[in-house]
Amino acid sequence: MDLNFGSASQICDMVAIARYLNVTLVVPELDKTSFWADPSEFQDIFDLNHFITSLRGEVRILKQLPPRLKRRVERGVVYSMPPISWSDISYYHKQILPLIQKYKIVHLNKTDARLANNGLPSEIQKLRCRVNFSALRFTPQIEELGRRVIRILRQNGPFLVLHLRYEMDMLAFSGCTQGCNEEEVEELTRMRYAYPWWKEKVINSDLKRKDGFCPLTPEETAITLKALDIDSNIQIYIAAGEIYGGARRMESMAAAFPNLVRKETLLGPSDLGFFQNHSSQMAALDYLVSLESDIFVPTYDGNMAKVVEGHRRYLGFKKTILLDRKLIVDLVDQYNSGSLSWDEFSSSVKEAHESRMGNPTRRVVIPDRPKEEDYFYANPEECLQQPDDPLSII
């Protein structure tokens, strides 16, 4: 099973599938072929023993294959396949289970978005949540460092976590180059062509941005936070890797919100030394801080942002500002061109986001168009305690 940290939900899906099929699950392998080439294993990020023992009553999980089966894999005698995307559980019963019975081992080589958002038995949905919110715990080292960062932030008052997904890999993958100079555009384009699994090559950045498919730039984000009347003195923790363009691109953000912090500014080199070149472990630290923030603001709805959104709903619908990127870039362009005054711009941004604060809402179901549905892990409503419910349904 290949996956990355941003798709930890894939682990939850595979546990649910293994439980439904009554088959043994081998501890997942993590993707080591991504842009960041992170060598981390499952047990470097997650508490492996807790994962196995907490699910003992649900599914049998092995740390590795028994010797006889391991030798078969080493000889290449293994059936490997990608399951069909957005499949309901009957697909796994009718198509995958017979293959397991025939070959004894089936390697699912892609697990992203392979289980449907909707139309599944409630016990499957609740198990997905139980794995995500209970069984998947980070290693003690990551958990302790996360608690330390949160303590430091809390000592200085409330804090907002900004998941500023304006990093080199995201921009190269998406083809979004707003605010980049010619040299940077060329660099990002070369990178996109260098990775064969990034299928889309020729991309119109302007059109993609206008359609809301680009992560907001640091400049667009800064003006949006100001329009939402976010306190200029609040601590803003940047949950991200290196921002593309560096300090030059962060100038407007730093001017508007001078209390910008990162894990690298809150912790010493000795604290983070162990995590260097392990982007998944660094992301795990950001995830923990994101969960505890007073406000969480993602600038792009990638895997981590969606799972944090859902986890914060699970923790009591904590304030999560879900930015309407398509509307924002249109309003920003109107404001920058002088078509809107500041008051008009700010009023429009506030009005558009009144109902986009992570509050309770029904998950959108669109039959036959699963990609356009709300993602299960962003709003796992079957598992949430609604404000008027006396007890959680998990």
UniProtKB/TrEMBL annotation:
It comes from Aquilegia coerulea. Its main location: membrane. GO terms for cellular component: cytoplasm; membrane. Belongs to the glycosyltransferase GT106 family. Pathway: Glycan metabolism. It is a single-pass type II membrane protein. This is O-fucosyltransferase family protein. GO terms for molecular function: glycosyltransferase activity.
